[in-house]
Amino acid sequence: MKDMQQLEELVSHLREEGFRITPQRVAILDYLLKTDDHPSAEYIHKIVKKQYPMVSLSTVYKTLDLLREKKLVNEIEVDGEARFDADVSAHINLVCMNCGKIDDIDEESLNEIQTRAEKKSKYHILKGSFELFGYCDHCKSKF
User: What is the Cα–Cα distance from 86 to 36, expressed in whole angstroms?
Assistant: First the structure.
């Protein structure tokens, strides 16, 4: 229910800003809101194509560019591949250096770190990201 309400709010926000809202764009946004994964554009295309066979990879990229520009998704680079995350709150991304899996960890102290960095540097910080790289539970036994 929360996902549906969030989806409706985001669609309404984009519509108010004058962006065309297509069923394909809604499906892309819906998938991003529902998944805990951090999918690539190609993977999102594969999923959305099941429901909308005519959706192009270009549409997926354009939609992701729009969502990133509007700060509705974050982009994380893993091994040269862009991956996307609809969780734009302050959190840590744990990235497995073997399989590429990404897990989120909420961390309250990130806001405090951002505030301290802003005071020390006199920057006006708009956004931050924090990634830690290592091996996930499945992969760590291989090393």
Answer: 9
- 46-68 pLDDT, tens digit per residue, is 999 999 999 999 999 999 999 99
Task: Tell me the domain boundaries of the chain.
Answer: 2-85, 91-142
- Say what the pTM is: 0.81
DSSP per residue over 49-113, as a string? HHH-TT--HHHHHHHHHHHHHTTSSEEEEETTEEEEES--SSEEEEEETTT--EEEEE-THHHHH
CATH topology of domain 2-85: Arc Repressor Mutant, subunit A (1.10.10)
The one-character DSSP state at 141 is: G
Q: Class of 91-142 per CATH? A: alpha beta
Q: How far apart are CA 137 and CA 14, in angstroms?
A: 39
